[in-house]
Design brief:
Order of helices and strands: HHHHEHEHEEHEEHEEEEEEEEEEH
Number of helices: 9
Shape: globular
Helix content: 25-40%
Distance between the termini: 69 Å
Structural class: alpha/beta
C-alpha cells in the first residue's frame, strides 16, 4: 500500500503544531486586519448564522465570527493545536458558541447532516496555492455549505510581473568595496531549483501585474487547480533590469448590502505596493545569461505553468519559459515598440477616426 500521501499529509498538519508558525501568522497585521474587518464589518451577514472554520488553528477567526453574532461556529483543526484553540475559546467565554473539533475536515460531520451559512478559512499558501489547503476548503464547501451560503474569502487572484531583483544580482557587484559577483552567482545557482520567497519593492516591478488566474471560490473545482498556465507578451512600463518574475495574490471577501449603502469591499493583498505580509512575494530568478536591460515599452514574452506536484498535491511546481516576442502573438492593441505593433495600433486608431 502506498502511504506516501498519508505521510506527507501528516507532516503538513504536524508542522502547524509549531507555535512559531502561528505567532508569525497572528503577528501579520494585514492578514489579521483583513479578516477582522471582513467579519466584524459585516455583522449583519453573521448574526444568528452557523459558521464552519476550516483549519481553525488558534481559533481567532472563529472568535471573530462569534463576536460578529454567529449563533454557532464549528472550528475544525486537524492538528493538536485544537487543544489550545479550546483554551482560547474558553478564555474569551465563547464555549457556548464555538465548538472545536480535532480532525481533518474530510472526516468531520455536522450534527443531523445540517449545512452551514458561511465558511471561513485562511487557506492561502505561497503564491496562493503552494502548501495551501484550498482543496480541503472546496471539499467543505461542497459537503457542508448551503446553496446560497457565503465563502470568506470569496475570490482569489494570482498576478505575475517581470521584475528586477537587486538583492540577488546588483548588491554583489560592490559589497563594502569588494566585488562578490562569484558569490552571487553561486547563491543563485544554489537557489535555482525552486522559486524564492522574497520581499520585492514596488519600484522593482517592471509591470503593474498581469492576472494569471482568477478564482471564484463558490464555483472553482479541485480539478481546475491541477494545472494553471499563462502565456503572455507583457509590455514593460518602465526601464530596468529584467532579472526575474514576481508572483503575488489578492483575496476579496463578501460585503453586506443594505438599502442605505453597501459595505466597502475588504481586500487582502500581497502586492509589493501593499503592506508586507508573511507570504511576501514569490520570485522566479532568471539565469544570468537571460537577464537584460529593458526600456519602457519593450515586450517580454513568456509562459508560466503551475502544476500540482505528483508526490504531494498540496505543493506546486513552477515552469517558466522565456519566449521570442518577435514570433509570439501580441494582445491588441499592443503598446510595445515593435514595428508590427506600432503599425497595427496606427491602423486601429485610423479606423476609429474614420468611424
Amino acid at each position: 500500500m502506498d502511504t506516501t500521501g498519508e505521510a506527507d499529509c501528516g507532516a503538513y498538519f504536524d508542522s502547524y503544531e509549531d507555535l512559531k508558525i502561528h505567532e508569525l501568522m497572528l503577528s501579520d497585521e494585514p492578514r489579521q486586519t483583513a479578516y477582522q474587518n471582513a467579519i466584524l464589518g459585516n455583522r449583519q451577514l453573521f448574526a444568528g448564522k452557523t459558521v464552519l472554520d476550516v483549519g481553525a488553528g488558534t481559533g481567532i477567526l472563529s472568535l471573530f465570527c462569534a463576536q460578529a453574532g454567529a449563533r454557532k461556529v464549528y472550528a475544525v483543526e486537524a492538528s493538536n493545536l485544537a487543544h489550545l484553540a479550546r483554551a482560547v475559546v474558553k478564555e474569551n467565554r465563547f464555549e457556548q458558541v464555538i465548538e472545536v473539533s480535532e480532525c481533518k475536515v474530510e472526516e468531520f460531520r455536522l450534527p443531523n447532516d445540517e449545512r452551514v451559512d458561511i465558511i471561513v478559512s485562511e487557506w492561502m499558501g505561497f503564491f496562493l496555492l503552494h502548501e495551501g489547503m484550498l482543496d480541503s476548503v472546496l471539499y467543505a464547501r461542497d459537503k457542508f455549505l448551503k446553496p446560497h451560503g457565503l465563502m470568506f474569502p470569496n475570490t482569489a487572484t494570482i498576478y505575475i510581473a517581470p521584475c528586477s531583483v537587486p538583492s540577488r544580482f546588483d548588491r554583489w557587484e560592490n559589497l563594502s568595496g569588494v566585488s562578490m559577483q562569484c558569490f552571487g552567482r553561486a547563491l543563485r545557482e544554489q537557489c535555482s531549483s525552486k522559486p524564492e520567497v522574497l520581499t520585492v519593492a514596488s519600484e522593482h516591478l517592471l509591470h503593474e501585474g498581469h492576472v494569471m488566474t482568477w478564482l471564484d471560490l463558490k464555483e472553482v473545482t479541485s480539478e481546475e487547480l491541477n494545472s494553471i498556465e499563462a502565456k503572455e507578451v507583457l509590455v514593460a512600463q518602465k526601464e530596468g533590469k529584467l532579472q526575474g518574475f514576481c508572483i503575488w495574490f489578492d483575496c476579496t471577501f463578501p460585503a453586506a448590502e443594505s438599502d442605505e449603502q453597501m459595505s466597502s469591499e475588504v481586500i487582502l493583498s500581497t502586492n509589493p505596493s501593499a503592506p508586507e505580509t508573511h507570504w511576501k512575494q514569490t520570485v522566479i530568478l532568471l539565469p544570468e545569461q537571460a537577464c537584460e536591460e529593458l526600456e519602457a515599452r519593450d515586450p517580454v514574452a513568456f509562459s508560466l505553468t503551475m502544476t500540482r506536484n505528483q508526490d504531494t498535491n498540496r505543493r506546486y511546481d513552477l515552469q517558466l519559459t522565456l519566449l521570442d516576442a518577435e514570433t509570439e502573438e501580441h494582445n491588441l492593441p499592443c503598446e510595445c515598440q515593435m514595428t508590427k505593433c506600432i503599425l497595427m495600433k496606427a491602423h486601429l486608431d485610423s479606423m476609429q477616426v474614420d468611424g
